[in-house]
Design a protein that fits this description.
about 325 residues, Dna Ligase, domain 1, 3 domains, two-stranded antiparallel ribbon, 14 helices, about 45% helix, elongated, membrane, MLTG-like, transmembrane, cell membrane
Length: about 325
């Protein structure tokens, strides 16, 4: 009888602890937070997909518990697609009530930042949409110390600007967001993409983060086809390994502030640390915001011996191992 009583007490305690844990998991993500997160639920999303989106956006703690709450409260069938403003202090049930109500948030702007955009172009896009003061935005871009406490990757002493770290993606921006909040959102996305596997590979290559993203940004501006990104990456690393200038037109165009189809002799003689015709090695920092495919290419270059490439009319490239081969390819692609 005594053993039965002890077991009963243990079961009750276990159930009580389980309920406490469950209630914590389905409660607010952060009960003390005033932060609101813009969440977009695409049309046709399943309950499982919706729960995953909410977990990714850090407004729900546990995907499976959210699904349980939805089913228990018969709120799993009425979730409506749309864009919502969800407070981190909302419980799972309150979030479900909002999603079932269909009260979408209308004070937002959908903004797409393409791969290869420079900070200036990003500032212009947000400014043209009436979302930022261009000068304030760029002032913050040139002052990464403002964000270092939240994003340790910026503590790389070589990073003196956020150029390259404003991750290109589609964002849903609240019209009331400040320049700082918008930049924070983009840095957060970069932090999500540049995961532990990439950090491990970076360490294996003996590179710092600034070098990886600088290389990735050059690849982004030079490559048109995804399958060529690792090859172009290899060309630049091969050149660096023999102390040969990268001679990337994209770096000169960055200095000039314009995309010329053909660079003049005077262009490639311009005095700048970003001019990879005059200076060996990588420029001081990124020249644009690279997408994940270019970042991956910078970390995983192809195993090839090429030292040259020339653009073809269809946007692809011809690759060569020797200068004589390169000249032949240039003549063929005129």
């Amino acid at each position: 009888m005594k053993k039965f009583f002890i077991k009963a007490i243990l079961i009750v305690i276990f159930i009580a602890l389980g309920l406490v844990y469950f209630n914590i998991q389905v409660g607010p993500y952060d009960s003390k937070s005033n932060e609101k997160v813009i969440v977009s639920i695409p049309r046709g999303s399943s309950l499982n997909e919706t729960a995953g989106i909410l977990v990714d956006k850090e407004v729900v703690k546990n995907k499976w518990f959210f699904i349980i709450v939805a089913k228990i409260n018969h709120m799993d069938k009425g979730i409506k697609a749309g864009t919502y403003s969800i407070s981190k202090s909302f419980s799972n049930k309150k979030i479900l009530a909002l999603l079932n109500s269909g009260k979408v948030y209308k004070n937002i702007v959908k903004v797409t930042i393409p791969e290869g955009f420079e900070a200036n172009q990003i500032a212009n896009r947000f400014s043209n949409l009436g979302l930022v003061d261009r000068e304030k935005f760029l002032e913050l871009v040139n002052n990464p110390s403002v964000f270092k406490s939240k994003y340790p990757f910026l503590n790389d002493k070589n990073i003196v600007s956020l150029e390259g770290f404003l991750f290109p993606d589609t964002y849903f921006i609240d019209k009331n967001y400040s320049e700082k909040v918008i930049i924070d959102i983009m840095l957060k996305r970069f932090n999500e993409i540049y995961d532990e596997d990439y950090k491990k590979r970076q360490k294996e290559m003996g590179l710092n983060l600034n070098e990886v993203i600088t290389m990735a940004s050059i690849i982004e501006k030079e490559a048109k086809l995804d399958e060529e990104r690792p090859i172009i990456s290899a060309v630049f690393y091969n050149r660096m390994n023999i102390n040969m200038p990268l001679q990337s037109c994209a770096t000169v165009q960055y200095v000039l502030g314009e995309r010329k189809s053909v660079l003049s002799y005077n262009d490639i003689k311009i005095d700048s640390p970003y001019n990879t015709y005059k200076n060996n090695g990588l420029p001081p920092g990124p020249i644009a915001s690279p997408g994940e495919k270019s970042i991956k290419a910078a970390l995983y270059p192809a195993d090839v011996d090429y030292l040259y490439f020339v653009a073809k009319k269809d946007g692809s490239h011809s690759f060569s191992k020797t200068y004589s081969e390169h000249l032949k390819r240039k003549f063929e692609n005129k």
